[in-house]
Amino acid sequence: MSDTDPGVNVPLPATRGAALGVALAALAVLAELGEAIEDEWSYVTALAEAGRARLGAAAGPDPGVPLAPDRAAAVAIACAETARITDAHRAIDWLSTFPAVVELALAARDGSDAGGPASSAPVAS
To answer: Which residues contact 77 (CB under 8 A, 6 or more apart)?
Structure first.
């Protein structure tokens, strides 16, 4: 059985809060699938809890902040990839990596999270 579904489509989240919402939904699906392996239930539960905390921190305190189109696309693509997973063991693997992917997409330290251009000014050392 294949772990791919070419028809999966996730809408682009317009804000950091919307990105958090779609990412949390994707994480929940992964956790539910991973929980099918009874011997891994507590591990899956811990991964999901850590993932939710990590995603919440990455989204930041203001959910209304607009998300740059490239960052929105990165979150949507990551969520679409999780929707293609059908194997419980692969879901567990993704539980540990998916939050890091979304965190990277949302970690805009250069000001580009509001849709503006990234600063090209050199960093003072």
So the answer is: 10
Contacts for 57 with CB less than 8 Å, ≥ 6 apart: 103
Q: Which of 88, 82, 20, 84 is nearest to 54 (CA)?
A: 20
- In 51-113, beta strands by DSSP E: none
pLDDT tens digits for range 40-93: 999 999 999 999 999 999 999 999 999 999 999 999 999 999 999 999 999 999
Say what the pLDDT of residue 9 is. Answer: 81
Phi and psi at 43, nearest 5°, equal -65, -45
**66 φ, ψ (degrees, to nearest 5):** -60, 150
Which pair of structure tokens corresponds to residue 120? 């090209």
Amino acid 11 reads P
